[in-house]
């Protein structure tokens, strides 16, 4: 019998369609393969094909926008939002508008075109997380911005237009509705119970372990109770932490370790799927609080959103999270 499950944080309902439950081998999707291209703009030697870099690690003595880097951050050549100008908020009858002000940056995670986050050395993945932090802290100084969104599209099916592994960052003058709902619902829970809902969830899931995938001293990777997508996974710090950029230094290495291990298991389970991940963190000006818990949401692209989902806001998931967690735990 199918189940309707409600996400306790957002209040969103999903359908776990147990009648059409699927194993990993039932999902027919093209595996992400790194084929190589003759003139990749993210490869060393092609630095002139990107806008001037904002940040670089690993270069010893050579000039800006030259080879020798281990990681680069550059403005997106085709930005969703523009960095120059004022917001100029105004109303037009019922409608509100403002200028499309923001920052759109690309984090080029490695000079090696053939690597992915799952195959990169752990130190290189840790560098990527530090670059996320450095750029967030810098952009938070711009008083026009209210939220910094960090995300990754891996594979064409997930929206990546360049196969060289990279992440993106967009600084926004407003807090996204999805994030605002999470933060506000978490705050209501805290006011009622004087506990963080995410901390309660981690404790409960750790007790039962049926949806736990990976667990170490600092982080847990788990299949959420009401996942929108097959094999959707959240990675959360055990200790309450409301902002990704404010983690203690040792946590970045620990996060790199568990993220790399999870992605390796995902590749083994689903044959190198395309995926998206998003870092959900507290809005600017609300970074220190007891009610919201930053986390990574990982979404493999093995199903498609269709008319029912668009029409209702309900997602149909053919793989129960308990089964997904079991497959990922046993992956090698």
What does this structure look like?
The structure is a single chain. With 332 residues, this protein is an alpha+beta fold. The protein has one domain: HIT-like (HIT family, subunit A, 2-Layer Sandwich), CATH 3.30.428.10. The chain is built from six helices and 15 strands. It has a ten-stranded antiparallel sheet, with helices on both faces. Strand 1 and strand 2 form a beta hairpin. Helix 1 crosses helix 4 and helix 4 packs across helix 6. The radius of gyration is 20 Å and the shape is globular. It starts with a strand and ends with a helix.
* Global Rg: 20 Å
Number of helices: 6
Give the distance, in angstroms, between the N- and C-terminal Cα atoms: 31 Å
Instruction: Give me the CATH fold name.
Output: HIT family, subunit A
Order of the strands making up the biggest sheet? 3-4-7-9-8-13-14-12-11-10
CATH-level-4 superfamily name: HIT-like
Low-pLDDT sequence parts: none
Average per-residue pLDDT, rounded, comes to: 92
What is the top-level CATH class?
Alpha Beta
Largest sheet: 10 strands, antiparallel
The figure for the number of domains is 1
- Total number of beta strands: 15
Q: In sequence order, what are the helices and strands, one letter per element?
A: EEEEEEEHEEHHEEEHEEHEH
- Strand fraction: 15-25%
Judging from the principal axes of the Cα atoms, what is the shape?
globular
Specify the helix fraction band.
Answer: 25-40%
- For the record, the CATH architecture stands as 2-Layer Sandwich
């Amino acid at each position: 019998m199918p189940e309707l499950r409600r996400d306790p944080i957002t209040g969103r309902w999903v359908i776990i369609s147990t009648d059409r439950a699927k194993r990993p081998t039932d999902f027919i999707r093209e595996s992400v393969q790194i084929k190589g291209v003759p003139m990749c703009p993210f490869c060393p030697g092609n630095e002139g094909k990107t806008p001037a870099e904002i940040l670089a690690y690993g270069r010893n003595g050579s000039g800006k926008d030259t080879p020798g880097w281990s990681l680069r951050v550059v403005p997106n050549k085709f930005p969703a939002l523009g960095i120059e100008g004022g917001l100029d908020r105004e109303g037009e009858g019922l409608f509100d508008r403002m200028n499309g002000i923001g920052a759109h940056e690309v984090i080029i995670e490695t000079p090696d075109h053939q690597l992915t986050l799952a195959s990169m050395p752990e130190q290189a993945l840790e560098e990527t997380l530090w670059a996320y932090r450095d750029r967030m802290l810098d952009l938070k100084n711009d008083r026009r911005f209210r939220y910094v969104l960090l995300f990754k599209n891996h594979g064409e099916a997930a929206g990546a237009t360049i196969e060289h592994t990279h992440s993106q960052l967009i600084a926004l003058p407003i807090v996204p509705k999805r994030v605002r709902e999470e933060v506000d619902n978490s705050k209501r829970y805290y006011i009622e119970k004087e506990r963080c809902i995410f901390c309660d969830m981690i404790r409960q899931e750790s007790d039962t372990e049926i949806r736990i995938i990976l667990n170490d001293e600092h982080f847990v990777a788990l299949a959420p109770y009401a996942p929108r997508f097959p094999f959707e996974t959240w990675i959360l710090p055990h200790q309450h932490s409301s902002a990704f950029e404010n983690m203690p230094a040792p946590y970045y290495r620990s996060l790199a370790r568990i993220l790399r291990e999870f992605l390796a298991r995902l590749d083994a389970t689903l044959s190198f799927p395309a995926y998206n991940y998003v870092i959900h963190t507290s809005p600017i000006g609300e970074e220190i609080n007891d009610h919201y818990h930053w986390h990574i949401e990982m979404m493999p692209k093995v199903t498609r959103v269709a008319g029912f989902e668009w029409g209702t806001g309900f997602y149909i998931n053919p793989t129960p999270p308990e089964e997904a967690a079991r497959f990922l735990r046993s992956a090698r």
